[in-house]
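Note to self: keep these together.
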Amino acid sequence: MFYLIGLGLGDASDITVKGLEIVKKCKRVYLEAYTSILTVGKDVLEEYYGREVILADREMVESMSDELLNESEREDIAFLVVGDPLGATTHTDLILRAREKGIQFRVVHNASIMNAIGCCGLQLYNYGETVSIVFWTDTWKPESFFDKIQKNRDAGMHTLCLLDIKVKEQSIENMMRGRKVFEPPRYMSVNQAAEQILEVVQNKQTSGDTPSGETVITEDTLCVGLSRVGAESQQIVTTTLQEMSSVDIGGPLHSLVIPGHMHPLEIDMLSLYASNTRVKEMLQSLQPTK
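Structure:
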């Protein structure tokens, strides 16, 4: 059997009872190590599970997936994923490959950022399309994510922005030279995400491509920054895009939410995390008059 097991978002103890029982009985246990991270390292997981855990990076999973699945024809294999197993297309591909090979598989679900984002107080059923914000380079600055955020706001919907993770990435020079030298891990912060959104806002203002109306994104658009969701050190802050570019909510992983139309209770919840009096007043001004 090939098991895809969600680990949740916090630490080693966030695995479900069902997931832990499976991990303890499997022949081999792999930890997917590139779409997200826990707040603890592999050694802590091994101590908690009482067994060896094999790190599986992107290259291994995408180039050796057939070998990994073939093991499951002979013995039970566990593939551990931070969050929920079906939160990334790579893992869906593993299921499709297992089906093609006639290999039995089972998914053990867990909390992911897609539902835990409800901790900020915005209702899950009021979210529109989720967007990914990637690290820009000097020669590559895609802006398509911004248009999706604006489309969500125009429809009154909130937007969850998943921020880029760069793990075991190679520089262009090392790739060209065929050297297996990897860059240090990088995790996008809400500061960097806000800066990139603000740059798009500035570009549109300069080009005269800025739409009008209450939903248009500006420097004063309210947003929510979250860090280490699900961990004891979780932090949430509500502030403007301009101020989000300089707030400090600690280490990774970060997520950013751009609200759309808000229910009075959602406004009250965001007020709990307001960065200052001005932001709290901005939120209260959105409450319907009695």
